[in-house]
Amino acid sequence: MRDRKNTAEWKDSELTARIRKGETKWLDVLIERYYDGIFRFCCCKTGSREAAYDCTQETFLHLLRYLDAYTEQMKFKAWLYRIAANVCTDYFRKAARAPAGGEVLELIQEEEKQFAQIERRELIERALRSLSDKQRETIVLYFFHGFKLREIAEITDTKMSTVKSRYRQALEKLKEYMGKEEAD
Q1: What does the pLDDT look like over 56-96, one tens digit per residue?
Q2: Within 10 A of 34 (CB to CB), how many other CB atoms are there?
Q3: CB 62 within 8 A of CB 115
Q4: What would the pLDDT profile of 115-144 be if each residue is shown by its tens digit?
Q5: Against a cut of 0.70, is the pTM above it?
Q6: Rounded to whole angstroms, how far apart are CA atoms 79 and 172?
Q7: I want to staple 104 with a disulfide (CB 3.0 to 4.6 A). Which of 12, 46, 47, 165 is the partner?
């Protein structure tokens, strides 16, 4: 007879059979096995961590309540996820709410911002590569390191008029490059 230490190798069907016989201690094993996945699923369905906690708990209560109705025709995991989907649907019916609540919208907006920042950064890198080495150096020192044109002249050991010229030419090229990219 196997003990709880080796439950990772136990099949769901073995665990459900034991639970049906009244050995409810094995329910903990199933809950541990599926809790995180069910929670993530409920979180996606409800759009709220708080609602996902409630729906996850309700899913496992339904599991216990309806385990006798479970048949081996469907994989246990699929059956459990179907219960979770139904619980989430009921959650919206009872609360008269629409799915994808504020938290999901905030997460999506945050991801879109991060994606836009990455795209913008890549565009800037491509634009900088279109400049000559001296122009790029001037722009990088000015915008990314905060040096004034006078300081850039000192750093690069270049005349102030040359630094100003590189700066103006670089800005014109960048403006032209960015305009082309945004038009595409």
Answers
A1: 999 999 988 888 887 776 688 888 888 988 898 888 887 76
A2: 21
A3: no
A4: 667 677 777 778 888 888 789 778 877 887
A5: no
A6: 62
A7: 47
